[in-house]
Amino acid sequence: MRATRSTWQKRSNRRASRADIARCQIMPSSVIKSFAYDPDRRTLAVEFVSGRRYRYDDVPGPLVEAMRRARSKGKFFNRHVRDHFATTEIN
């Protein structure tokens, strides 16, 4: 599934550094427990508080940086990631 050009892409002119987005982000969220980004493969791994883990393919680095900065990770994820990228459940 191809991502559509969304608001974050229109506003984002800053390139995220690999150091900023490659490390695992753990945050207080009612939906997302943690996420990690592999800039070489452009994959985003997300672990939900339910314990389920998914990999999202071909995710642009600036989108992950915007997610990292977002006040509500769950809202950002639902609006810009979920249903926009090919997904694989990680067992």
Explain what this protein looks like in three dimensions:
With 91 residues, this protein is α+β, with helices and mostly antiparallel strands. The protein has one domain (20-90). It contains 4 helices and 5 strands. The chain has helices at 7-11, 18-22, 61-69, 73-80; strands spanning 25-26, 32-38, 43-48, 53-56, 87-90. It has a 5-stranded antiparallel β-sheet with strand order 1-2-3-4-5, covered by helices on one side. A hairpin with a 4-residue loop joins strand 2 and strand 3. Helix 3 (61-69) runs antiparallel to helix 4 (73-80).
Q: What is the structure about, briefly put?
A:
This protein has helices at 7-11, 18-22, 61-69, 73-80; strands at residues 25-26, 32-38, 43-48, 53-56, 87-90. The protein has 91 residues and is of the alpha+beta class.
Q: Any idea how many domains? A: 1
Q: Rough shape?
A: globular
Task: Indicate the percent of residues in helices.
Answer: 25-40%
Main sheet makeup: 5 strands, antiparallel
Averaging pLDDT over every residue, what do you get? 80
Radius of gyration: 12 Å
The structural class is: alpha+beta
Number of strands: 5
| Element pattern in H and E | HHEEEEHHE
Give the number of helices. 4
Stretches with pLDDT under 50, minimum 5 residues: 1-21
Assembly state here?
single chain
Strand order of the largest sheet: 1-2-3-4-5
Percent of residues in β-strands: 25-35%
